[in-house]
Amino acid sequence: MITALPILIPLMVVILLLMVGRKVYWLKLIGISGAFLLFLASLLIFYTVRQEGILVSQAGGWPAPYGITLVIDLLSALMLLISSFTAFLVGVYALKGIDEKRHRFRFFLFFHTLMMGVGGAFIAGDIFNMYVWFEVMVMSSFVLITLGSEKQQLEGGIKYVTMNLMGSFLFLAGIGLIYGKTGTLNLADLSMTVRESDQTFLMNSSFILFFMGFGIKAAIFPFFFWLPSSYHTPPVTITALFAALLTKVGVYGMIRFFTLYITDINPFWQNLLLVLAALTMVIGVLTAASQYDIRRILSFHIISQIGYMIMGLGFYSAFALAAALFFMMHNILAKTGAFLVGGLIQEKTGSFQLKSIGGLFKEHPWLGLFFFLPAMALAGVPPLSGFFGKFFLIKGGFEGQHFLTTAIAIWVSIVTMFSMIKIWNEAYWKPAPKDLHQPASHPLRLKRTMIVPVAVLGFSTLLFGLSAGWFMEVLQEAAQVLKQPELYIEAVLKPV
Amino acid sequence: MEWTLLILFIAAGISLMIPSRLKNLKGWILSLFPFGVFVYLLTFIPVIDEQWLIERSRPWMADLGLNLHFMLDGLSLTFALLITGIGTFILIYAHEYMRYYSHTKRFYVYLLVFMGSMLGLVLSANLILLFIFWELTGISSFLLIGFKHHQENVRTSAIQALLVTTFGGLMMLAGFVLLGLASGTYSLPELIIGDIKITQHGWYLPILILILGGAFSKSAQFPFHFWLPGAMQAPSPVSAFLHSATMVKAGIYLLARLNPVLAGTAEWQTIIPLVGGSTMLIGAYLALTQKDLKAILAYTTISALGMLMLLIGIDTELAIKGALIYLIVHALYKGTLFMIAGSVEKQTGTRDIDLLGNLAYKMPITTAVALLALLSMAGLPPMLGYVGKEIIYEAKIQAPHIAGFVTFFGVVSNIFMVWVSIFIAYRVFFRRQYHGFKTPKETSHHFWIGPGILALVGLILGLFPHQLGEYLIQPAMNVIRAESLKVDLKLWHGFNQVFMLSLLTVIGGVVLFMLRKQIIPFFRKVNKKFFDVRFSDLFTRFLDGIMLFARHNTRIMQHGYQRIYLMVLFLSVAFLGWYQLIDTRFWTIGLSVGHLPPYVTLIGAIIVIATLFTLFSRSRMAAIISMGVVGYGIAIIYLIYSAIDLAITQLLVETLTVAIFVLVIFKLPRFAKLSSRASKIRDGIIALLVGGFMTGMALKARNLELQHPISDYFLNHGLSEGFGSNIVNVILVDFRALDTLGEVTVLLIATLGVVALLKIDKS
Predict the structure, then answer these.
(1) Which of A2, B51, B227, B572 could form a disulfide with B164 if both were Cys (CB 3.0 to 4.6 A apart)?
(2) ipTM, 2 decimals?
(3) What angle do CA A411, A417, A419 make, to 5 degrees?
(4) How many domains would you assign to chain A?
(5) B558 vs A contacts (CB less than 8 Å)
């Protein structure tokens, strides 16, 4: 039963939200309670999976390859946990960070449909069902981007949705082909079929469609254009939510498919992954270096850091996979935190443009600390989480003797530090430009519900770093499960 | 022992909590923490003498080989005593120096974290732990150097220092990871004592170079040296600390620490002396041409660091001994001199040696302290500096292979050092002219207690070097050379070859000082001609270059044109797809079109013709209608293969689409710009590539059926268990009801999204 909670809780919340109409107070109350409940449920799921192993539930009671199966292994449980945790914090921030107008038009409803899509994608054990949840996500995020109907939001929204629909189309085409070839949609059944057949190379052609579909969702090179075109257009709270969830679902899909279907090192796929990972890292970080809008810098860095995750997947060892997962979790925390601080900066100064702000550190040392933690975590400074992610990936890379890719990753991390220091330097250290008067309405006190989530995220990068050993243990366990698809297959197809 | 670290980090927290009532005692209160640690560490001297090494370990990330593993031996202890001892006086000095600065709360936090990180660095017994503290010193020094961040050059210098040292740091991390893989451990005691022969390993050279990258950048070796003069933008207490006991000494510590692991090879004995030797000479030379007192001192630090590197590279017992003594010598006099420079600046308002002068009579105590330190810097008796220099000369003369080269370099650099010492003494303190901005008077005791004690320690140790040798240098030597050694230090070595060299050095320095009026302008001119490259400018230009490239890159990558994004997307899809198709080309595709009934073929032909008509039609209306034909054609094919539900859906969608299109077209301007011929061809090629790939895929999929489809199950169980004879319906509402739930949700979101989109402005 608890297997379906990641879908059911948001669904219930959405129904409740529909019943209260546009009463902002109730929308906020139900919305945030729902987000908290989802986090609790994820904790429960994580605990259960740790105790009992892979959780499987057959929707409607139809047996495995025929109906839709929901599966939660350790990877899914971890993804649910981290995504619901950050989403809850973003939700708290959104109470004041999103204006009344957007709340009235049901920000929280779209928030929860997005969570439903994300949760569904994480637990779907069926390839078409996964596609459906991707659609739910795309539609919710499209509405969230355009919520407010400002001109640039609409422009960003259009770019976002066209390119993402391209991704969905490729994914769907892949599903069609795979069903034609294997006659099944169940992930486990499919994996078994592929493993039992001697013609696995024939999977490759439809698999390339999945790869491109996920690649677009994950914003890897050369599919990332939608991300920087759209992420800076909605209110920063929404961007923070996207940074935590959207691209990571794409990465999740890649990890799931690669571990289920391409179980042995395959030179074609490995080279493809590593080359694209390197290009994604380098192009993302270079493009970020030239930006002067905080949101754009951070957006381009998302791309660069997706490259690290893909690189970890490309190294193919269980350790490197765990390292990639660690990096992903770190990135979700740090990136969301950094975006939300960007929101606070904008609240205070009225701008995201580094050239027109400054002097923040003198006046708001705490705001400085809350930025410094996630930013330095992203730059990979120990003992924050990013350092360990980087360290594990370097270790995994050297172990597999992928010296060139690893060296590129190390170089990219220097440029990342440069970008983070640039924000620090311009927004915090540089004296505020004199010719720009700060709007009188802005030096108001920041609301506590906006500061607390930012502080929690900032310190969580520290805690996550300090307890990296424990998390790595769990993640290595998760990677071990992933490296043995027979566990997944057995859990799904032979229920007790 | 490991708690001492925690004490300093706690002190950083406490510094925030000291009530403003006690503000006048803040530096003193805080100095108690490092002083306590210093005294506590002193008690370890006899223990170390007996045991060589004390280890403490707590598991942290045991599986990953990263533990809270600390060690204390002669080498760590020497560094730890310098850090906490000098740190104590730095805090007392800072107390007065920072009095009129704002935001000093932050300053003390940074300083104590810096101190704690440095202590952690020298106490770490795990390479990764060491790296963590290494980076923490980098970050905390970044914040310290940039403390006066309202000035642009301060910010630039801080960023430069951070980026250069982080760059080296990451090289080092890569080196550590390789070392860990090659040896199977990150534990320093295991590496040092164990019988793992890293020097024989195939990865030895990359490991060495990567680790040297870290050490050289941190210890400001040529060509990474330029960040250090920039770092003098920090407040003087920070400069004094950074140059004497911390930060720049980290690289020296690292190489001394790894000496038993990595040294003893030709690579070690070539690369390090070469880099160290050139840094030594360049540093000393550049010191002479500076006008800013702190800049002169900064370049002499570079020279001293070069000397230390050189000695470590020579890699003989004598050289290591010399390095250890010189390390202490340099820490003592450089800490003193930077604090003095700070006092002088406070009292006169300038650091320009062309303006300073005559302070001996106005600030006698400061002058006395400064002279002691300068004596040590010049390497004259009876200071510890003399003891050090004698051993170093001896080590250089006896250096294997390269004695001539290093002795010459050493003598020249030392002559420069003597010269600089006399020059500073004369220009700042004894010259009769004074053009400063304030009327100088003696400083309060806060300003001279710390430097005074450090200088006196230099004197006392010079007079009684034996104790220093026995209690600190010897245990440190033991662990570096991994054998039991006897160290006996003396101030006076008798009239020998080395003494002659010393004499030559002093005479040379004095003579050059006499000739300064001729030589310095000449040096400056040479500088202008040949050394006009300022490395920090080069670095800035390098960063600007990256930015420029990045901007260029952004223009190519993120130009904002949706159609080009889509084009790239489609091209990439086609590229990857065709690559995959070609990769599996040996799979024969059986074309079975011939077996289709003629009416299906006919409908297919109609679809193709309608598609072509859409493409070439000049009228929008005709294009839309022919697209409708394509849709209806597909619906009929569905119908033929008895997918009635699908056919109905397709018909409805197609009709709606055509209707909406027609409605929209009336709103569009009448004459649209048509694409040029070239872009039509280009788009056509892309479309054919993508379409061709999809067709290829579909044909391939048709020929392959790995297992029997699950649809049979639906046929068999639809009525009996799903209670519906329309299979599609049963699938939608029962077998795969969850999909339907998801799709319904999509519709709900779309509906509410449209409401929000249209109404939100009006509300």
Answers:
(1) B227
(2) 0.93
(3) 110
(4) 1
(5) 225, 228-229, 287
